[in-house]
């Protein structure tokens, strides 16, 4: 069903997109953060496109232990979502749970198709966060949102699906010059020197995997059985292609983050509360008694939703998240194309 829907929805997207994009950012954002903002190649086999962040709130109900909670502000919006931190152990056990059966693939799960300029018109699908460490060192996080993650197959069995999906690139700058990039891949990822990656002018490319949206530095097949190691084939494979080019910077909210007090400041009056929400951006893992669930030696067809941007190690010392040692910044793309 996935491949059929993808062909019907996005078959025309294989036409090459323009390679020059208008760059838009509010006043105060360092110009180099805009100039080097990544471009993302989407896989045209993927039904699930980048999604409007606010729409995720509109189509879900907050639950704890799979039971709806009450007493929170209604309607919930990106401007009051952190009110849910009063429930479920400080918000950590709150799940924004789909109002629809996700197996029916409701329209809001399939997101927004980028137009010819790479913009997801009418949908804010990305968040850009700058973290100034002083001494000329600044990290820029480019966070990308999808309403649904299709986990792919293992031995022809679909596993690892979940509602809500945050992935990101991070570029470390020194005195305005890009030094290295991080590509998030599931709970881990890879780091590369800036000079090593493929680019459109100054702007590095990222390739979002079919369904899982893990980010890679090249097109092709990527086995991630061994964390932080990208092999051309194996047991757990992601697949990327140069399909539709998406420019997340055209449809983003922009912020700075202060690690000392853990606060966000919008560059342009964007909502902030949703960034402080401590819960999950999707359903809780379905119990094995649920007819949609499947248990394959402890791996489930449907897993729980992810946490949001604040919990992606924004105040990291190295290019890699601090909880992901060792941090190897590769000077070449591995494996080579």
TrEMBL record:
InterPro entries registered for this protein in UniProt: Vps62
Signal peptide (UniProt feature, chain positions): 1-16
Keyword tags: Signal
PANTHER family: DUF946 FAMILY PROTEIN (PTHR48174), VACUOLAR PROTEIN SORTING-ASSOCIATED PROTEIN 62 (PTHR48174:SF5)
Name by which UniProt lists this protein: Vacuolar protein sorting-associated protein 62
């Amino acid at each position: 069903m996935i491949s059929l829907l993808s062909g019907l929805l996005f078959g025309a997207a294989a036409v090459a997109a323009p390679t020059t994009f208008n760059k838009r950012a509010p006043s105060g954002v360092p110009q180099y953060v805009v100039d080097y903002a990544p471009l993302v190649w989407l896989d045209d086999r993927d039904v699930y496109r980048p999604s409007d962040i606010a729409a995720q709130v509109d189509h879900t109900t907050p639950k704890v232990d799979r039971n709806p909670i009450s007493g929170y502000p209604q309607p919930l919006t990106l401007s009051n979502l952190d009110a849910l931190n009063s429930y479920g152990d400080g918000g950590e056990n709150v799940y924004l749970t789909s109002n629809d059966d996700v197996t029916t693939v409701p329209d809001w799960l399939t997101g927004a198709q980028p137009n010819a300029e790479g913009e997801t018109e009418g949908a804010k699908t990305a968040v850009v966060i700058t973290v100034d460490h002083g001494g000329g060192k600044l990290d820029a996080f480019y966070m990308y949102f999808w309403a649904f993650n299709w986990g792919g197959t293992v031995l022809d069995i679909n596993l690892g699906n979940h509602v809500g999906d945050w992935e990101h690139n991070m570029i470390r700058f020194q005195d305005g010059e890009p030094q290295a990039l991080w590509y998030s891949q599931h709970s881990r990822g890879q780091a590369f020197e800036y000079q090593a990656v493929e680019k459109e002018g100054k702007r590095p490319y990222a390739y979002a995997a079919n369904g899982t949206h893990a980010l890679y530095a090249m097109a092709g097949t990527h086995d991630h059985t061994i964390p932080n190691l990208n092999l051309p084939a194996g047991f757990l494979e992601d697949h990327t292609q140069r399909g539709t080019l998406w420019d997340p910077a055209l449809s983003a909210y922009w912020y700075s983050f202060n690690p000392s007090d853990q606060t966000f400041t919008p560059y342009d009056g964007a909502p902030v509360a949703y960034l402080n929400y401590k819960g999950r951006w999707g359903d809780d893992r379905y119990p094995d008694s649920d007819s949609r669930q499947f248990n394959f030696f402890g791996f489930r067809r449907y897993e729980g939703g992810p946490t949001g941007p604040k919990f992606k190690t924004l105040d990291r010392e190295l290019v890699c998240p601090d909880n992901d040692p060792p941090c190897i910044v590769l000077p070449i793309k591995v494996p080579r194309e």
